[in-house]
Amino acid sequence: MEGSGDEDIQPLLSRERKTVSACCSSRYNLAILAFWGFFVVYALRVNLSVAMVAMLDDNVTSPKNGSVEACPPHSNSTQRNHVQKGKVYDWDSDTQGWILSAFFFGYIITQIPGGYLAGRYGGKMLLGFGILGTSCLTLLTPLAASLSAYCVIALRVTEGLGEGVTFPAMHAMWAQWAPPLERSTLVSLSYAGAQFGTVVSLPLSGIICYFLDWSYVFYIFGAFGVAWCLLWFMLASSTPETHPTISKAERAYIISSLRGQHSAKNYVPWRSLWESLPLWAIIVPHFCYNWTFYTLLTLLPTYMQEVLQFDIKENGFLSALPYLFCWMVMISAGLIADCLIKKYNFTTSAVRKMCTIIGMIGPAIFLVAAGYVGCNYKVAVLFLTISSALGGFSVCGFNINHLDIAPSYAGILLGITNTFATIPGMVGPIVAKALTFNHTVAQWRTVFYIAAAIDVFGAVFFTIFGKGAVQSWAINH
After folding, report:
1. What is the tens place of the pLDDT at every residue in 23-35?
2. For 89, phi and psi rounded to 5 degrees?
3. Phi, psi of 261, rounded to the nearest 5 degrees
4. What is the pLDDT of residues 196-209, one digit of tens each?
5. Cβ atoms of residues 198 and 294 within 8 Å
6. Does the structure show a pLDDT above 50 at 9?
7. Angle at 85 between CA 84 and CA 91, to 5 degrees
8. At what angle do helices 149-163 and 93-107 cross, to 10 degrees?
9. DSSP bridge pairs for 56
10. Residue 179 to residue 252: CA distance in whole angstroms
11. pLDDT of residue 159
12. Ordered DSSP codes for 343-403
């Protein structure tokens, strides 16, 4: 099938006309439970970005007078009157960059093993224990910080090991649970939890830092993660066949809709997989999209404080605003994508490419524009919000394409693409910190330019080489 350009038809279209209601169904209950799981995943990942602002000694991190071209402080800002709570540290800019990047050094290691194990043994336990381990380690962050920056770095690396299995495990579960004509909706709903976790975590972390102290950020979110894991272990199942309460009609519907899409091979065709151009067509945009995503995810609070001069409370709310709209767009994009395929007979390939173009080139345009608004706070926040919001379309583009081209190996494929896509999380914040050593608008403009150019390249690559149908090496003949 690979290499053919005409095989991209609606999968199992006639068979799936007889659908089982989504209301109260086990597959949508799984999506909602997974939504809150990825809420936890990203809340634990990004809370450090805001807490870091409160953890640092102002006398060390504040720019020297005359060396910066930042915006003037806001007239209504409470930053000058706010007294920092909790212990503060004299970590320099390089140390901050390494702490923010450390998570991804662990995260990259468990991607492919996580996808392989989830495909072979099921994703439920792997995902659950991955989040449980990260939640417990998050509770230890204040202790690690009191010891040394190196302990925080080591802790964050270990947290990354735990979270590295989460997306591949969930993808492997959706390969068993998501009917082809509902993939965009189910996957976008579950992964939208990541954006919602960012939306809640950023402002809530700012409020906690302001009224309590930064250590409670890690205690509160860590405890919430442990509580979610208990629910996950009780309610989730790796496959419809093993779910204790699923209706017979829904089980039969899911299994029937996926017939002919899975391989009966008990091994992974590694050579064919690595030689597959459609797989590389996912790897490239995944890497490119994450360069922008992780740079903003880890450094947007820093940009809000150092350049736009927002205080800790304003910082959290405004840093979360882009992800609020991205969350809304992700859910809407999933419904739109499935509607285009089911009702308007768009090919899967066309929908995936259209969503990728909107979700990568759109953000690039507004990211560059944000670098040219100077100290116009409202327009800067507006452009960054539109940029992130449009990025929500990508979840129905290259981000879900693993399930289209190789459902049997979707977890492994996501592990592979996410391995490459984790490199920007390791490198991006360090590069951005190095480029913005004087915290000027011009230096941040360079950061935005680089991210936008990488985004455009990824979108073009997927548009040329991406496919929307199951590949020949991924099915059993």
Report:
1. 788 999 999 999 9
2. -130, 150
3. -105, -15
4. 998 898 889 888 98
5. no
6. no
7. 65
8. 30
9. 89
10. 11
11. 96
12. TS---HHHHHHHHHHHHHHHHHHHHHHHTTSTT-HHHHHHHHHHHHHHHGGGGGTGGGHHH
CA dist., res. 430 & res. 97, Å (int): 5
3-state secondary structure of 144: helix
- Residue linked to tokens 């102290």: 213
3 state DSSP class of 258: coil
Residue 469: CB partners within 8 Å, gap ≥ 6? 1, 7, 8, 9, 11, 348, 349, 404, 405
**232 pLDDT higher than 70:** yes
Structure tokens at 170: 């969930």
pTM (2 d.p.): 0.83
Q: State both tokens at 34.
A: 């997974």
pLDDT, tens digit, for every residue of 259-272? 877 776 678 899 99
Query: Tokens representing 252?
Result: 């039969």
Per-residue pLDDT at 264: 67
Quick one: tokens of 90? 């004299």
Q: Are 350 and 468 in contact (CB under 8 A)?
A: yes
Question: What is the C-alpha to C-alpha distance for residues 321 and 435, in angstroms, rounded to an integer?
Answer: 25
**If you search the block for the tokens 């706070």, which residue do you land on?**
377
What's the CA gap between 180 and 87, in Å, rounded? 52
pLDDT greater than 80 at residue 12: no
Angle of CA points 208, 307, 444, to nearest 5°:
120
Please report, for the chain, how many H helices and E strands are present, in that order: 19, 0
Please answer whether residues 309 and 43 qualify as being in contact, where contact means their C-beta atoms are separated by less than 8 angstroms.
Answer: no
Which residue would you say has higher pLDDT here, 381 or 265?
A: 381
CA dihedral 335, 418, 293, 28 (to 10 degrees): 30
What's the length of the chain?
A: 477
Q: Beta-carbon neighbour count of residue 242 at 10 Å? A: 11
| Adjacent-strand bridge partners of 89 | 56
What are the tokens at 373? Answer: 């608004």
Nearest CA-CA partner of 221 in 33, 34, 40, 87:
40
Angle at CA 412, nearest 5°, toward 393 and 452?
A: 35
SS3 (DSSP) at 89 = strand
- Dig out the tokens for 268 from the structure: 């992974």
